[in-house]
Every structure is written in structure tokens, then in C-alpha cells.
């Protein structure tokens, strides 16, 4: 049976990557009860980085938001791997967003909205979440954005 959430993703003109490999010695996710803790995902597609930091050098705010959205798509890939279906998401509880930016850059939260808006568009009120968005001097693979998440899954 097709996933309603993946159908909604397709309606938005988006799809999930075919893979989301870990870059180091860590798990892409860990479940504890109905909670799913997702490791940070950078703005890569099928393991190939697509957007590089810091913001402002090669990417404007709109492109940086797309980079954050790509991070969210990688998170969704791992959510589906862990849960079996994106329809099993009960709520997106928290996102943490990291933006590679020069000192004094104040729009990190606007960039993180690229990930937040995708979760809200897919899951409605269940996609609304608490969030931290910070700017940092560098990220793995010189990525522009990295996002992690805590998701609540439906009990079985």
C-alpha cells in the first residue's frame, strides 16, 4: 500500500533519496520506545554533497533553504528505514539545524525553515516541532546545512 506521506511528498514535487549513508562511525538513527532519534544529515543526495558553506559565498538565502530541505529529505529516508512507513510518524518533536555561516550572520533560523516547512507541509500539525537553529564555522564535508531530529512513532 502506498504511503500517504510519500504521496504528499510527490504532490510537492519531491522524493526521497535512494540512500543516506553515514559519513563516520555512528548509527543513522536509534529507537527508544516510540521515540526515534535521527543523526544529523547534511545537504547531500545519495551520499554526494550538493551545497557547500558558508552561506553567502556561493548560495543565497533561498538556495540555503533548499539545502535545509534536502537535509530533511535525508531524515525522512532514515525515518522510513526505521519505521517501515512515513505514515507511522505520530509527531515531529524537535529539529536541530546547523548552518555554516560567517561570524555575525543572523539568518540561520530562516534557513532552517527549509526543513521545518517541509515537515509541516507533510505532517500538518503533527509536523510542528520545537527547534534550535545555530550558525557554525564549518560542517562535515564543508556542507552548508546539517539537520537532526527527534520523531515520535505510532505505537504498535
TrEMBL record:
CDD domains found in the cross-reference section: YjgF_YER057c_UK114_like_1
Gene3D superfamilies in the record: RutC-like
Segments forming domain Endoribonuclease L-PSP/chorismate mutase-like: 6-152
Pfam families in the record: YjgF_endoribonc
InterPro entries, per database record: Endoribo_LPSP/chorism_mut-like, RutC-like_sf
Name this polypeptide is given: Endoribonuclease
